[in-house]
Amino acid sequence: MSENAIELQSVEKHYRGFTALGGVDLTIERGEMLALLGHNGAGKTTLMKILLGLTRVSAGRVRVLEQPPATSGAVALRAHIGFLPENVVFAGGMTGREILHMFARLKGQPRASADSLLERVGLAGAADGPVRTYSKGMRQRLGLAQALIGSPRLLLLDEPTTGLDPTLRQAFYAILADMQHEGTTILISSHVLTELETRTDRIAIMNRGKLAACNTLDGLYREAGLPVRVRVEVDGADTAARVAQGPECVLTHSDRRVELAIAPADKLATIRRLSQMEDHRIRDLQVFTPSLDAVYDHFGSVRSTSV
Amino acid sequence: MNPIVTIAGREIRAGLRNRWVVAATGLLAVLALVLGFLGSAPAGEVDAGALTVSVVSLSSLSIYLLPLLALLLTYDALVGELEDGTLMLLLAYPVSRWQLITGKFIGHAAILAFATIVGFGLAGVAIAATGSVGDQGVRAFAALLISSVALGWVFIGVGYLISVLVRERSTAAGLAVVVWLLLVVLYDMALLATLTATGGENIIGQAVPALLLLNPADAYRLFNLSGLAEVASFSGLGAAGGDIALGWALVSLLGWLVVPLGLTWLIFRRREL
User: Fold this and answer.
1) Of B9, B84, B272, the CB nearest to A56
2) Which of A83, A208, B187, B271 allows an S-S link to B92, with CB 3.0 to 4.6 Å?
């Protein structure tokens, strides 16, 4: 038995006159949490639809929990998948509890499991009101609850935290962490970068239907090779000139301050060089590592040509 | 539990919640009562029983109303859920597409059958309680109930076909009106014009009875108005339908039930969301 929950090999999806996916290779191991980043229209939702068997691929090979998802035999496969669509909508007149009971029946799970999920996402109090009165955050929580029915082996979450306030977002990720702990594989698409940084095992960045990068956060930084900025506060023009004399690229240079751009590999050498200067000459030294936003911009920006 | 049952239950609950069931049942009951008590007034004292008269007037009403109700109920059955986004979530569950359509059909069929049988049935009971009822009348009324349910089901299937063919709910609404006009109103007019023009003489004229059967609404009319001797004599339709076997009207309705549903499934099965 393979250890991969999802395998995509050269997957292409063409719509009439439009390529949604142009050859995507991606493997997600069991129990892994992978973030899928990308601008709108990068192909994130198309990818999820393919994994759910809602859309067929134009070319390439797809395996979800070792099965091809878009065949008639894949109906049973979907019993093991939980899905939260972007902007989840429920039939307006039903109450949250009724909706969750219905979904539980569709997955062959007892009603009690639906009730306990309502509690888990903090909706137990509002469960008997019609969903049309729900706030965005409540709908999103109901959406998560339905995705969790039957403890799925694979969770596909399409921009799940949009519209959630920070507290709810924390709770949301706490639940996901629990699920991952139980061995669930999680694929989560988002364009909120900072909240994903610390929570996911790997980050895949999509750009115009292609996978621009897929790595751990550290790996992405290395791959991007974005320069580290070092800002040096000095005591005067004299020192500033000496600082600027080094092999580094000088970004700004004034009598009081010099900013350098350094390749990540040369960072230590530069700091060593600066620290050898007399103490009082250098007043302060700040190191700015590139933010995830910068990394994302590098790989995933629409105007990026590095792909 | 079987997903078909769950989906059917979902449709029935939705119909109950948005008062569709109550409204349709009430509408049919009121119209049937009005027709039953007032509609027979111009006919004066006739030989036929009160129920028989009701069958004639009711079938003339429901031939327009039931297709309209059925189309209203179902024109957005698939395209509406596609637009709302609820379809994608539903199909992400272990539900196959034929199960979804079958479940929806069972739910909608139950709603419409309930409205028809209860609505017309209540009126029938009231009419029977106040007037003369013959054996024939009861049989004709029962046949009316059954064929009315069948007519409604046919147009549920037609509604599904509409809702799987278009990409927007508003387009589906427009198409539903057009289909209703074509099948229920214009088709008859065209046939009548043909009959008048040809005098029923040449090949085209003689084909009219067969052409009547090709339309579900006309098949329904033939079934009710020429099926029973007493009704036929009272409705004056005996001549047109006389040589057409009652069975063919049923075959036509059955065909109109199966073909649109089958087409819906064939299209929906390949549909990419």
Assistant:
1) B272
2) A83
| Chain B contact set for A18 (CB, 8 A) | none
* Range 81-100 of A in CB contact (< 8 A) with B: 81, 83, 85, 87-91, 93-94, 98
Q: Are residues A152 and A266 in the same domain?
A: no
In this structure, the answer to whether residues A189 and A62 fall within a common structural domain is: yes
Are residues A109 and A44 both part of a single domain? yes
Please judge whether A91 and B10 are an interchain contact, meaning their C-beta atoms are less than 8 angstroms apart: yes
Whether residue A174 is contained in a domain is answered as: yes
The answer to whether residues B134 and B51 touch, using CB atoms and an 8 Å cutoff, is yes
Report the 10 Å Cβ neighbour count for A34: 22
- CATH number of the domain that residue A17 is part of: 3.40.50.300
Pair A122, A262 in one domain = no
Comparing CB atoms, the residue among A54, A107, A146 nearest residue B273 is: A54
Of A222, A251, A281, which closes a domain? A222
How many CB atoms sit inside 10 A of residue A158's CB? Answer: 23
Tell me, yes or no, whether A218 lies in a domain: yes
Is residue A301 assigned to a domain? no
Dihedral in degrees, nearest 10, Cα atoms A169, A175, A180, A184: -110
Burial B148-182 (b: 16+ CB within 10 A, else e): bbbbbbbbbbbbbbbbbebeebeebbebbeebbee
Same domain, A43 and A191: yes
Whether B9 and A102 lie within 8 Å, measured CB to CB: yes
Chain A residues whose CB is inside 8 A of the B103 CB are: none
Alpha-carbon gap: A145 to the closest alpha carbon of chain B (Å): 13
Query: Where do the domains of chain B lie?
Result: 3-270
- Closest chain A residue to B4, measured at CA: A106
Residue B111: alpha-carbon gap to chain centroid: 13
Asked whether residue A125 is assigned to any structural domain, the reply reads: yes
pLDDT by residue for chain A (307 residues), tens only, comes to 567 999 999 999 998 888 899 989 999 999 999 999 888 888 889 999 999 999 999 999 999 999 999 887 788 899 999 999 988 888 778 899 999 999 999 999 999 999 999 999 989 899 999 998 998 889 999 999 999 999 999 999 998 887 788 888 888 889 999 999 999 999 999 877 767 767 788 989 888 888 988 988 888 888 888 888 889 888 888 888 888 888 888 888 888 899 999 888 888 888 888 888 876 788 888 888 888 778 888 887 755 444 3
Residues 6+ apart with CB under 8 A from B159: B70, B71, B73, B74, B75, B77, B176
Looking at the fold, whether A280 and A150 belong to one and the same domain comes out as: no
Residue B7 vs residue B48, higher pLDDT: B7
Count up the domains in chain A and report the number.
2
Note the ipTM here. Answer: 0.84
Q: Which residues from B are below 8 Å from A52, CB to CB?
A: 91-92
User: How many angstroms separate the CA of residue A42 from the nearest CA in chain B?
Assistant: 17
pTM of the model: 0.86
Could you list the residue range(s) of the whole structural domain that residue A258 is in? 227-289
Q: Are residues A118 and A203 in the same domain?
A: yes
Which residue of B3, B14, B96 is in closest CB contact with A91?
B14
CA dihedral A179, A182, A187, A192 (to 10 degrees): 40
Angle between helices A111-120 and A96-106 (to 10 degrees): 130
